Amino acid sequence: MEVIHLKYPHQLESTEGPYSLALGFFDGVHRGHQAVINSAIATAKEKGYKSAVMTFDPHPSIVLGGRNEKVFYITPLQQKLDTLSTLDIDTVFVVNFTSDFAKLSPEAFVKHFIRDLNVKHVTAGFDYSFGAFGKGDMELMRQLGGESFGVTVVDKYTDVSEKISSTRIRKALKDGDMEEARMLLGRAFEVPGIVVHGDKRGRTLGFPTANVQHMEGCFIPATGVYAVKILVQNEWFDGVCNVGYKPTFNNPDHKQLSIEVHIFNFDKNIYGEEVVVGWYHRIRSEKKFNGIDELVAQIEKDKQAAIEYLNSHA
């Protein structure tokens, strides 16, 4: 999969294609997004085009909304690209979303980012908008396409009656409902990170943990204890994870979030390793214990609960 980064105005020395292009921000690359992308891939195969995805970075709200707070992504850009690479896509265009880009009229967007890229078919969701102030909709895309490129509009993708959306996934993550998140995504929710040195307290308790410093901008699920899998050196291992503020050892004002994974049947030194944590089931909320013995007993219960869940569900 080729990744091409574009700015406005862009200057590509050569444009390949022709492309069947899926358009969208695609945060999460969830089942609804996959329906759009798979439609574009199917058109590419039918017409003999190259398959392509166009996404944007950073999130438009950062540029348009004047927001000071951080935006947390279900899939930060690199993770989004990693997920897209598992699909049958030839090219991904990553458009730098800037103030100048945001000012483009729908007509100018189509000229510079559809026609000039040799796109012969555009696929997007029914509610996709483009151009300044989101004035362009998919009906306008059809009109602007005319005879020069085809357009496919993918209907609302639902489960039962509700649209599958990034908003629903974020709510599930906030609630710690990893089963709901997994159903909407079509895979387990994952957080990439690096194993760093922690306080090493887990070793003294008999439950050594990998302290995972998550990739900046990742959406982290609700605090609590989870059944997880962790990818280490290209191999998945089962584990139990605590995400939170360790209230048994820290004062209530401590606001440094930690992600600590006790990996089952594992004794390697993995400091500095890039890992991925896959979240499957929330076992309980984080709580303060009245002593080490009470904490250790609970960790053992959590471990057994994680083993049972992962053996039967994942």
TrEMBL record:
Pfam family, one: FAD_syn
NCBIfam families in the cross-refs: PRK05627.1-3, PRK05627.1-5, ribF
Record's keyword terms, sorted: ATP-binding, FAD, Flavoprotein, FMN, Kinase, Multifunctional enzyme, Nucleotide-binding, Nucleotidyltransferase, Transferase
Pathway per the UniProt entry: Cofactor biosynthesis; FAD biosynthesis; FAD from FMN: step 1/1; Cofactor biosynthesis; FMN biosynthesis; FMN from riboflavin (ATP route): step 1/1
PANTHER family: RIBOFLAVIN KINASE (PTHR22749:SF6), RIBOFLAVIN KINASE/FMN ADENYLYLTRANSFERASE (PTHR22749)
This enzyme's EC code(s): 2.7.1.26, 2.7.7.2
Domain Riboflavin kinase: 184-311
Reaction catalysis annotation: riboflavin + ATP = FMN + ADP + H(+); FMN + ATP + H(+) = FAD + diphosphate
Family: Belongs to the ribF family.
Protein name in the entry: Riboflavin biosynthesis protein
Gene Ontology BP, a term: riboflavin biosynthetic process
Molecular-function GO term, any one: FMN adenylyltransferase activity
